[in-house]
Amino acid sequence: MSSSLGEKPDSGSIGQSSPDDTGTVTAAKESPPIVWLARLGAVFVAIQAYVYIRWIFSDSFSPIPTGPDAVPTHTLVIIRASEVICIVGVIASIIWLVHRTRKDGKFPTLGVFMMGWLLTCWQDVGVNAVVPVFSYNSAFLNMGTWGEFVPGWVAKGPETPAPILYELADYMLFLPLAVVGIDKLVKSARARWPRLNKAGIIIALLLIFLVLDTASEQFLQRQGLWSYLRVNDTWSIFTGTLNQFPLYEGVFFGSVVMVASMSFYLFRRNGDQLITDAGIERLQITRDVAVVRILAFSAVMNVILAVFFLGFNLVNMHADVAPTDVPSYLHQNMCGLAENPPCPHLK
Length: 347
Hints:
mainly alpha; 9 helices; 51% helix
């Protein structure tokens, strides 16, 4: 991959040399950090492609119905309205990316952030990898889920669907809008309080996002869009109801993971470079630099999410509180919920 990315030789390499045709010893070429990260990102893309291809050409690629229980009218209205917003928003994002790229002559860093996050979408289903603890309303436009095709997935029967339009908009609309808004907020705060350092900003954002994540999750849960169907009683609120919420999700995903990812954008270097762009000046290519940047950023985010979901699933092994009355459009025949048979691996 080093030749395809056209890295410039690193004259500072120590202990790695080879003679050229004239017998002169020259420094060996070393790939800059961005290239190594891009290689890892390419591996994750290959896994994602493998998962999606198997899913699309399987019998599982079909809508999961809502079941016998009727979805409340206000919930259906919210779901359909959100899907319209998602479609319009994603189209607007694509138009903006094309316009900005043509105007600046290069792919924008916000686009790198956006596309890098999009390449982590395949991990979203990881919340239910071992135990079904989370469910989207199956009234969302869906074609089932790719979960069962993810390497290491524990087979346990029916799974919750993936809301295609909503998840796409998460990465191409809602997340970019959030990071742009936070970026402007941080710049304003630094202008007003010049002594505000990175540590202070990160601590403040961790607290803000914990509150925002918990509040937004609760609001949307109460509208019937999704539900945490199994939680750990000790670290959760509103347990035993469809509105129960695991505070550890708010702390580690809503706060830590989100702030960590945004920090890459908020604390850009050399004008407009992400931390994952380290060594970009050594690349000789010009046209495909954006691809390398996207792959590098996606590699780091995929690793962060993999670590999060690993820990989340370990905690979920002890998630033993579930609501007794779960409508069919939320439990979707998943094991151990409502009157469904228990999960075979948890007997």
